[in-house]
Amino acid sequence: MLLAAHQYRFGHDVEAMARHLVDGVAVGWDELGTDLLDGTPPQIVAALTGGEHWPSSTLDHLVSPDGSPPVRMTVTEKTAADQNLHWGYVLRPHGIEVISVLHAEAGPVVAWNTDPRLGFSNHPAHWPAPSKAPVTTPAPAAGPKTTPTSSPSRSTSRR
Question: What's the whole-model pTM score?
């Protein structure tokens, strides 16, 4: 939904999206609804929601134990588990970073122009944190010093 919201409702404007999702809420979100998909083509909305519609709802109705007004929720690696959160999202200029609580230090970035109808798994194992060190391909091992044998060449056409 966040990819579609960025592409359609917010017209590829990450700042406008952040103002709505982060700055525009007093405490936090209870649930993000299909109102985020306003302006999205109906076939994409149907693919994402199965045709269902529901409103976003905030946590503004909370009451603190001492009766004081609730404050904005801050989520960190340490508080995520206590808040029963499994995922975090960071809005980046080039895409949305998807962080599994299992890999709280970082997550892969999904480009903003990604088709929101693609099937994304919600299994944390499919969203590992990016490696901290660059991955290199080992140099091929030197083979035995033998003369290669020739084999008939096969002609294959690419289609």
Answer: 0.71
